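Title: Comparing notes on inverse folding

I've been comparing how different people in this forum approach sequence design from structure. To keep things fair, I'm posting one structure and asking everyone to reply with a full sequence. Here's the target:
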């Protein structure tokens, strides 16, 4: 399973990567994680990902999510933002989850469970 983390903050990207790795180890999910920093490096990337955490926020994040959805309808997109304004737009793109900052490990557990269709 390929998982991407697209984040503009190196510290936040590292924290997300660490929590996702912790989740994968805990639930024995084989995964390869890639971080894209800055997040603008991601849209040009052609590799296929099963799960993508888009943490760019604002209109840029929504634009990236729309491009990703057009390129790969099966990808599980998880938007991360500090306002709820883009949660509704994310639903229109059939995003798997929306995480409102500040992100906590329990949010990663929920989003990964949704993406993997595990227990609810």
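Reply #1:
Here's my take.
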């Amino acid at each position: 399973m390929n998982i991407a983390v697209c984040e503009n903050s190196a510290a936040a990207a590292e924290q997300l990567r660490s929590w996702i790795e912790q989740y994968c180890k805990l639930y024995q999910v084989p995964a390869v994680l890639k971080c894209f920093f800055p997040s603008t490096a991601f849209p040009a990337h052609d590799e296929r990902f099963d799960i993508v955490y888009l943490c760019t926020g604002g209109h840029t994040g929504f634009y990236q999510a729309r491009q990703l959805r057009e390129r790969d309808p099966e990808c599980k997109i998880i938007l991360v933002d500090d306002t709820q304004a883009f949660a509704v737009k994310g639903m229109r793109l059939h995003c798997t989850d929306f995480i409102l900052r500040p992100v906590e490990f329990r949010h990663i557990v929920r989003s990964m469970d949704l993406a993997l269709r595990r227990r609810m």
